[in-house]
Amino acid sequence: PGKKVLIVYAHQEPKSFNGSLLKIAVEELTKQGCSVTVSDLYAMQFEPRATRNDIVGETSQNTPLSKASGLQSPHQFPLFWFSMPAILKGWMDRVLVQGFAYDLSKAYDGGLLQDKLSLFSFTTGGSEEKYAIRGGIRCLLWPMQHGIMHFCGVKVLEPHICYAPKHASEEKRKEMLTAWTQRLKTLWKEEPIDCSPEWYFK
Q: What does the record give under GO molecular function (predicted)?
């Protein structure tokens, strides 16, 4: 309670299932007394390309992410081609920069964002069984959760995955939304995953 939360939202359509998950997160976390900021990347027309114009002056500490005192995210997004949307990857490239999120001598458990939590909440186009054919969906999360978040020192919570909501019944979609609401109620009591290879590839 009282924590500052930044939600990074990457979906083009506000009325999408991802939009519903975002709305629930904002409402529930606000009820808990959190101060919630949403970075809606598409609505902001966020520039995902890291260019030479980004490399100017000192690294700023006056950003929504630096001010977030609790959950850095949920990152709310649809899974595109076994990864995050390009606009969200661009946000990672441009925001989680050296000197702010990590340094050459300060990474992983010693990363500069050790006081942050991250949670990847996303939807898929395929069923859970489809992702189990080649080792399970956790393998896909290795570069996102471990290679980016954990590298910067961020503590990573278990991902929240809604499988194939487009192909689910209305009742099943409601169950997914209810499960997300219930998880948010006890989110602050969760322990981070260990981010070891065993978690992803067991």
A: NAD(P)H dehydrogenase (quinone) activity
